[in-house]
User: Fold these one by one.
Assistant:
Number 1:
Amino acid sequence: MSKKVIDLDNVVVKFAGDSGDGIQLSGTQFTNTTALMGEEVATFPDYPAEIRAPQGTVGGVSGFQLHFGKNIHTPGDKCDVLVALNPAAIMANIKMIKRGGTIIADIDTFSEKNLEKAGFEEDTLDKIKQDYKLIEAPISSMTQETLKESGLDIKVIMKSKNMFALGIVYNLFGFPTKHSEDFFDEKFKNKPELAKANKKVLKGGFNYAAAIQAMPSFRVHAPTDLKGKYRNISGNVATAWGLLAAAEKTGLKLFLGSYPITPASEILMEISNRKDLGAKSFQAEDEIGGIVSAIGASFAGNLAATSTSGPGLALKSEALGLAVITELPLVVVNVQRGGPSTGLPTKTEQSDLFQALAGRNGESPVPVIAASTPSNCFEYAYEAARIALEHMTPVLLLTDSYLANGTEAWRIPQMKDLQNISTKFINSDAEEYLPYERDENLVRKWAVPGMKGFEHRIGGLEKMDITGTVSYVPVNHEKMTELRENKVEKIADFIPDQIVEGNPESETLILGWGSTYGHITSAITELKDEGIELAFAQFNYIMPLPKNTSEVLAKYKKIIVCELNRGQFAAYLRMKFPEYKYEQVNKVQGLPFTVADIKTSIKQKLEN
Amino acid sequence: METQKYTPKDFKSGQDVRWCPGCGDFMVLASLQKAMSELNHNKEDYAVVSGIGCSSRFPYYMNTYGFHGIHGRAALLASGVKVANPKLSVWQITGDGDALAIGGNHFIHEVRRNVNVNVLLFNNQIYGLTKGQYSPTSLMGQKTKTSPHGTVEVPFNPGQLTIGAGGRFFARTIDNNVKETVEIFKYADGFKGTSIIEILQNCVIFNNGAHSAITDKETREDNQLWVEHGKPMIFGKEQNKGIILDGVKLKVVEIGKNGISENNILVHDMHEEDTTIHNALLKMKLPEFPEVFGIIRAVEDETYDDLLDKQIVGIKQKSKISCMDDLLNSGSTWEV
């Protein structure tokens, strides 16, 4: 009897288990191998906020989902294969497995106690067997068996059962174990016994799957044909690299002042690790310290940035106003998460848009842009730096937990191809320096300590137009307020027009912003296959909006705004362009849209 | 590089100075302008930053690069400027409210990190700019607009707070003592590390005479102990009083009485790593003791800004990644 081979264009795999089971490691290992096999891939980790949540419970399940094959825009809605290291992992994901999909479960963990903790009832297992293909694999005991002569402690042995599971999955897709073996050789360079043990267990899983006839085997269709050199990258790393790239392009030193916060910490970690590129990171004592140190560094002539998430942005508000009134370049990255307050620290949401646009005292305009895929976080971080430096303003870059932790294959750019950035330093032979004298784009010049002859004072008090001295003159305040506003509006002349994808001739425009790009694109594509053709615009530039925005909106009878909040972008558009009517598709569950969510909602709206 | 010669006038900006007539801040401004004119930096290499409060207007009055920040955050502006460009001589202007209340957290972390900046901590024991509320250095029981029946909180002792946070440099001076203040500023500029200089400053409007017991002409020689490194701790109108160590405590003695000679008097060692004596000196309060002034502690150590630069140099030498293209192409990549 030969194995059943399942042919697919693309496939969704999810690893799930207790949050201490090493799920994220198996997931990233599988992702890297998948990418190295030339597949398009997108991933999404999903883990509890607690570092070690109660074992064996549904609340403590950590997951890692990846989607690979061709035309990959999202980490996938429902999975074809779920690897579950305990019963709770099945319970937590049961609604997200395709009917008829494969569940590979560690049957050794199916004790009465664990089943009860996971909320299994007497007939649950039977029902699962009816709806899905359940493969009961003795992962724990076989891991133990594989390492029984290793001399390792049982606790250490059990920690490698994730590798047994990974070995099984490699076999299902016909992928080699080599890349992960190399990974262990590198990771445990100084502990060869651990490298050996992990590799042995990985191989054990692989061989077990090969031997078991019940295991299906998958053949996934050919990968992308866009030529080039690729790598895998997450949104947070791409953000950090975008800032580093802008610093290198301009010849400025990068200074990042930040305070650790989920899900943004990785940006601080990545830049802290880039001293080889001369980057300076300053882990401040709090969020305010992060941004104020960055403002100090900006005053001193560095490319300065601070990274945070929603609650941290709230703490930075006052200082962000200081950057607005002093008109210093600064990039503020807000990796959004579920709110308000501490909210859902590890989950995704787009609910900081209002905060980004208006969360400060006074008339305090700040340009806002948003990345829309994990890899284009690089592009938009670079763009945030470009706007900050060329327009002498703080810029807010919005990403979110989904982009930050998600990864995708990325065609590696070359530095020489990146757009030039022109800094606004005053010419060293200028005769005088008037801090608030502006060019035709209302941008002031930058003079930094160490530049001879341009000593000047700035600060949080209102400035006299042109001279920058302190001024309480009423009409001056109004004038400066308008100048700051117009300066930000003028940035619209230096950003691309909004493009419309899908079928621009449709009567209906689907509109999104930021990280929902992948899910909306997939939904539009699938709806087209069903005969519903729609126009689609995904906004990356929020403040100011692209100049052709009104022109785009005017073309459509129906405008449906999809976002992961209660309608903040829709409300913003209503304020800016009240002449059009906007319908909304919203979700606030701490989760990304699914393609199915969007399709269903759009169909409903089209019927009305 | 040849540095220019300056006079204090070169450091005066054109802005009208807007402190109340008689404010102690005027003298401190004059002292810093004098100190800078005597120091060996180019004018463009000074950065004067501040938070919020009366004293924080200071940068506007200096003809240097200056940044008037937001309340409590001067320490971070100073740290950011210094870390971004360690060549600069950075002066942070702050008050007892700015540094020890709203900015208390930043203050202790700045001291702990030992960023090489000079901090002028104006202590008038009151909130002046908001018109007379008590501050974290107001005396227990002090009656102010927000403590009409007297405060019920124990004040901070800035010196002990600094040392508690791992401070390497602490000096104390008085607003109108230009001579000593200038010398302290100049020493602090050369000192590698966070230099905290507490300046007893008189707020003529809301807390006039707060320091008068210490500063009154009649009694000041008996009530001020100016310490000098390597010199015995002698004070008093007749220069006949001194400090000795009695067990684990300090004690005031009279030279020539009870067999005490100058040889028995404690000799000040500002470079002593151990904080015991420095702390004890800072704890001295009237009327049992005189209050201590001068440079109490100056113990150099590596600074944050130096260590960070050293790390960068070391890692640059070792790393295989020397530019963005290297980084972009590092790790696992594949060709399609």
Note: The CA atoms of residues 172 and 217 of chain A lie 5 Å apart.
Number 2:
Amino acid sequence: MMMIKFILNGEHVEIESDPSRRLLDVLRSDFNLIGVKEGCGEGECGACSILLNHHVVNSCLLPLGNIINQEIMTIEGFKTTKRYQIIEQAYIDAGAVQCGFCTPGMVMATESLLHMNPSPSDFEIKIALSGSLCRCTGYNMIIEAVKIAAERGEGLW
Amino acid sequence: MKDMMYAKTIRSKIVKGTIKSITIPPLPEGYFTVSREDILSKNIVKIIFEDMPYYSTGEINHLNEPIMLVVGSDMEIIKQIVDEIKIEYSEENGVFDESQKTIAYHFKKGNPKRAFKNAEKVIEMTYHTGLQEQAYIEPQGFIVYEEDEKVTLIGSIQCPYYVKNAVVYALGCSSDQVRVIQAAVGGAFGGKEEYPSLIACQLAVAVKKVHKPIKLIFEREEDILSTTKRHPSRITLKAAINELNNVTSISADIAIDGGAYTGLSSVVLSRAMIAVSGAYTFENLEVLGHVIKTNTVPNGAFRGFGAPQMFFAIEMFMHHIAKETHQDSFAFRMRHIARQGDKTSTSGTFRDPILLEDLIRVATEKSKYHSKALAYSQPGIYKGIGMSIFLHGCGFTGSGESTHIKAQVKLLKTKDGLVHILVAAVDMGQGIKTTLPKIVSQILEIPIERCIFNYPDTDNVPDSGPTVASRTIMIVGGLVARAAKELKENWIDNLEQIVTKRYVQPSYIKYDESKFKGDAYPAYSWGVSVVEVSVDPITYQTKILNVVSAYDVGKEIDERIIQGQAEGGIVQGIAYGYLENMSANKGVIKQKNLTDYIIPTTLDVSKMSTYILDNPYQYGPFGAKGAGELTLIGGAPAVALAIQMAINKNITKIPVTPEYVMELMHDDD
């Protein structure tokens, strides 16, 4: 057990815990951030995607001890931003959400992409989202949503 | 939830045999094992065919068969206990071939014997299809708790009343002692149709023992290794060809692998058998079908429900017949497509207009099918284009709706004019939370915000049947529309009003289940899919280049939702045909996670275009028919035909993996 400090959704937090625990479990059980989903526990499906210093990562593969003093953003924290609103509306307008289980992870991957590349090509969008599995949509409507978000949010990223 | 307990399932480590002994270490306080000894009434999961226990009886029929639960407050301690429990088995050899048959069906249309006797030529082929995993991104899971004597289950489920009825049967209690609430459900695709009933029964027994809330969520590996999948099949087809090079009769011998327990396999088999004609009309048929029992994880419901296997086989076969008789495949297929007034495979009638010619015209024009097929038939190009033509019978097979389901829906108007839609149908991403309120709001001419659809709770909603078989919009939505019309006629402001409607079969539908005779479905949805591929002659990998589909789903209630169903469905169907590879070796499934069971990612999909032609069905709401399953069915045959063209070899099994392509390309015969 050790005291671990990090920045979670913009706030300094600390937790006394085993540093080998998966960040996914810490976020869900200790911080009640249940927008982070577990789909496979092996880093394949991307349902547990969060931002680590603005970059999308699988929280199921991240031990708590690796994030000391780092910045973590989950969908709950991202939800308060203007950029989220743009992405949310784009997802709605493109019909990019069916069951919604992959959506928080997809949205975090979208934010991570647009943060690095505000006007991505179709192929760049596909690469950026390829770590998030969706079984419902067939992806094209999600890719369309990212294009809409990039266009509408010009200047925000 | 306060005092929440967790549970983990102990599963068999052998494929077949019996349990000799179970040694349980002394358990810490507050930890329990729950097994068949704790069962209060019946150890059977109530599905259509009742042969599956929810806690092993001591006889093991497949690997990872559930034996007991370990329940307690700390998952780490539970895992330790699981490791310490020792089970000794007496092992036997499993059966994995077709030697154990559990269900056998047979039907005929016309006079197949005479057709074969008079045939100029007889052509025969055998096709194989593999396992397919639903791979819903959200694994199976339930929370169960007890209040007074009543058991409440909150679950990721498609069919609240299937779960409720199974638990009532397992506990031997009265119906009001079990309540089932649907949690927000991640896409299920059939995988949460009958399987959750098994976990629910285990947990209901457990909660009656520990009297504390219990949460059981599967990890992905456990989910893949122990839950139901799409039935593998072996389909042998024989065609009688006359002097005009037309098919006069098909004889089919179909075997689907049900795995260790029968479950829904008999119904999957009957849908596969009825689909024997594809979207064509053959005057004479002889159809034999079996469910075979093997010592493998049981198979069950998956979007398409037997039809995808059969459509793969018949579409490949039609193409093969054309080739063998030296005819243009397109013209040959067009001569055989079903037309209004034709007799269905079960000697019922296609009563409604059939738009197949229009669908085919749209799909082939938009995909440039003809010019590309011509160009790609040259050697050395390694590209191909394939077209599949298909239908899907909407709703339950045969008289299922009227004799088994008897769907009931309720609309409750509150004093302040809110209309609650009370049905047991589940939104799992297919959009009924949008479409059902849309139907009600349009009929009542009130804003959609005043039409309320909440996740079903069996204490509040009547049994409108399971969320399966592409029936929700056509059957449940149709009843909701009728209820809304009645409410509109009798609407009184400031008064609470309730309208209930029960399903009545259209009087023209007559079906004899035992003989497979009559109208197997009240209506059919139709589709045409064109898939274009390239095959890498060095790596043998297939790349999807373009997908064009045209559908007749009656009338779309929401354009974007149908587009979502269309794109998601065909991606699953195409992947079934070439990408998703699951296999079992002597009862051991080789793929364990999404790492080795590959489903499509963004990089595997191409541009997709979907065209919808209106053809309103008189009993559907605003003319709507089923759509959810239809869109998957054409994927596998279209991609397999495209690959076949690209490599100029006969494909007889799916998935068409790079290994299979390599084998075919190196086979010079």
Note: Chain B touches chain A at residues 134-139, 184-187, 189, 219-220, 428-431, 560-561, 563-564, 567-572, 593-595, 599-603, 605, 607-608 (CB under 8 Å).
